[in-house]
Amino acid sequence: AVEFTSRLGKDIMVPFECFEESWVLFRDEDGKAGCIKDECAHRACPLSLGTVENGQATCAYHGWQFSTGGECTKIPSVGARGCSGVGVRAMPTVEQDGMIWIWPGDEKPAEHIPSKEVLPPAGHTLHAEIVLDVPVEHGLLLENLLDLAHAPFTHTSTFAKGWAVPELVKFSTDKVRALGGAWEPYPIDMSFEPPCMVLSTIGLAQPGKVDAGVRASECEKHLHQLHVCMPSGAGKTRLLYRMHLDFMPFLKYVPGMHLVWEAMANQVLGEDLRLVLGQQDRLQRGGDVWSNPMEYD
Fold it and tell me: Which domains are delineated in the chain?
């Protein structure tokens, strides 16, 4: 998953990187999303610097146009007759569950994306969809998201002030979920969904406060989160964050509330970032980030 459906409007191009290659998303005339190499077949100018005209990515340099399938459809100086055999690479692209998915692999993609796990349980309302470019290797970021043992020490100025220090995490593996379980004593259920997603359901005693010693399923209020950590390049991650609540649905309609959620997400990420960036630096210098694993690891 590389973008939220709600963020890719008509006549908009969204550039991004995947495995150190530049790509761009846009919609055709019928509104169907496509993903092509962000590099004009003529002079290698980034197509994302141009515009979308009648569902075609139009280069800002000489006006060459390309479809969502990557075919060159128009060269202004010669018209359509000069386009035969000219094009750029494209990736299979589908929209499902409010997200735009690409397939960067060499083999043929599966017909269906098994993404039902990314949706929250019934009764939840969507409150935030945020996309951030993070200067951290995606594996380190995934590990950070799954590791709640750091919360009472790292997030003391945001959400985890006064939290008890956890002793263990009850994780399991099976065919349905690659890695999932519950932290003790927190009312938090988490899972890792391949290839690069982390899901969490947090039971709240009251808005913003967990009740230690109970399970998430025993709580009346819940925060459901999805983190997608797409490897954009060496030491870089495209992070998609989506948040649902099963209480206070009116917050969705409060003017400017999305700015509040975005500020909170950035503040929490900032608390993690200085530590994970330090890990990444030491890793690049030959350090071992798993030298003394504990039970909760």
Answer: 3-102 (2.102.10.10), 125-285 (3.90.380.10)
What does the mean pLDDT of the chain come to?
Answer: 88
Cβ distance 83 to 71 under 8 Å? yes
Beta bridge partners of 226: 199, 242
Within 8 A by CB and 6+ apart from 258, the residues are 128
pTM over 0.70: yes
Give residues with Cβ within 8 angstroms of 295, minimum separation 6: 167, 168
Q: Which helix (H) or strand (E) holds 257?
A: helix 257-284
CA-nearest of 171, 168, 201, 203 to 185 is 168
Q: Which two tokens stand for residue 211?
A: 């009740």
Q: What is the pLDDT of residue 71?
A: 96
What tokens were used for 90? 């494209």
Question: Token pair of 233, please?
Answer: 């390049």
| Structure tokens that stand for 41 in this block | 């077949």
Buried b (16+ CB within 10 A) or exposed e, 110-123: eeebebeebebeee
Report the alpha-carbon angle 292-177-143, nearest 5. Answer: 30
Could you report the per-residue pLDDT of 23-79, keeping only the tens digit for each? 999 999 999 999 999 999 999 999 999 999 999 999 999 999 999 999 999 999 887
